[in-house]
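Technical annex, item 7. During the second reporting period the consortium partners agreed on a shared format for inverse folding records so that results from different sites could be compared directly. Each record opens with the tokenized structure and is followed by the designed sequence. A conforming record, contributed by the partner at site C, is shown below for reference.
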């Protein structure tokens, strides 16, 4: 199966959810109007509000139903006949708590037919250096794989990817495409080279190659409080090769065709996932022992 994926990076207006939803709709309108091949359109982490909100998370947070309704209404005037899947990041209000979340939606011409396919709540919350997420949002509890019109997928948010176990869990659960959304402030500028961009390339390529999966990454751009988000969204194939990448720190839209038949080839060439599956029972015993030791230590 072939999936046409588009990654969009733009600078959101800080705290202005309605304006940013308009910008999302404008990007979708451009894709439809220009006939860009698109099955799934991916937007960055916290694209509806900007990232560094701190206490402003409470004002910017929306329920997932509110995001779906708002986007469905905006999409209707220019909707194409075929459904269109969208991944986007937002601050979410859910069951009385605030989360850094991602939605996977399917949009149809009729707003009442639009639906939420999946919600991912960021599992690993960075709280060090310039990051203070644990102060303002709750942690998600699951790394899930969900069915889409194009096969099994997962969504991960930024710091989730810096812990290799999340990709391993998603791959073991059957994900073939990883949608990774991020908001990564630039660090370590050396002319054309940026340290965290190099790190992101390494993380995404390693994750794709180790598990034999496609990775579609959309990363925020723009400045918030003197911190510049790098962008550089990219698509990586199951061989760990970057297929396309967006420019550094500029608004852009990039697209790639995902060929899911390449997954089997990549996994045959480098059967690392199969090796992991064969040793999983023993690894689980090791993990249970570690968990028991940590539990006993915390009780002391």
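Designed sequence (site C submission):
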């Amino acid at each position: 199966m072939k999936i046409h994926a588009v990654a969009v990076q733009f600078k959101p207006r800080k705290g202005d959810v309605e304006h940013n939803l308009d910008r999302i709709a404008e990007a979708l309108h451009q894709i439809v109007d220009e006939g860009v091949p698109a099955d799934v359109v991916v937007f960055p982490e916290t694209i509806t509000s900007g990232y560094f909100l701190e206490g402003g998370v409470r004002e910017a947070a929306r329920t997932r139903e509110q995001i779906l309704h708002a986007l469905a209404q905006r999409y209707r005037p220019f909707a194409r006949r075929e459904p269109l899947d969208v991944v986007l990041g937002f601050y979410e209000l859910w069951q009385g708590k605030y989360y850094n979340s991602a939605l996977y939606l399917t949009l149809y011409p009729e707003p009442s037919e639009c639906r939420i396919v999946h919600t991912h709540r960021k599992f690993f919350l960075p709280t060090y250096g310039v990051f203070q997420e644990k102060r303002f949002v709750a942690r998600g509890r699951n790394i899930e794989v969900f069915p889409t019109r194009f096969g099994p997928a997962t969504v991960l948010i930024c710091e989730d990817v810096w812990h290799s176990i999340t990709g391993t869990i998603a791959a073991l659960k059957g994900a073939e495409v990883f949608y990774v959304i991020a908001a990564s402030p630039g660090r370590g500028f050396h002319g054309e080279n940026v340290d965290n961009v190099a790190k992101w390339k390494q993380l995404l390529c390693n994750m794709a190659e180790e598990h034999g999966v496609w990775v579609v990454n959309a990363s925020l751009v723009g400045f918030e409080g003197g911190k510049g988000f790098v962008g550089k969204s990219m698509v990586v194939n199951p061989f760990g090769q970057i297929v396309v990448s967006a420019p550094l720190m500029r608004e852009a839209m990039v697209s790639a065709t995902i060929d899911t038949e390449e997954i089997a080839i990549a996994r045959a060439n480098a059967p690392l996932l199969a090796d992991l599956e064969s040793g999983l029972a023993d690894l689980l015993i090791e993990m249970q022992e570690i968990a028991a030791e940590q539990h006993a230590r915390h009780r002391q």
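Residues 2-269 form a domain with the Nitrilase/N-carbamoyl-D-aminoacid amidohydrolase fold (CATH 3.60.110.10). DSSP finds ten helices and 16 strands in the chain. All partners now use this format for quarterly exchanges.
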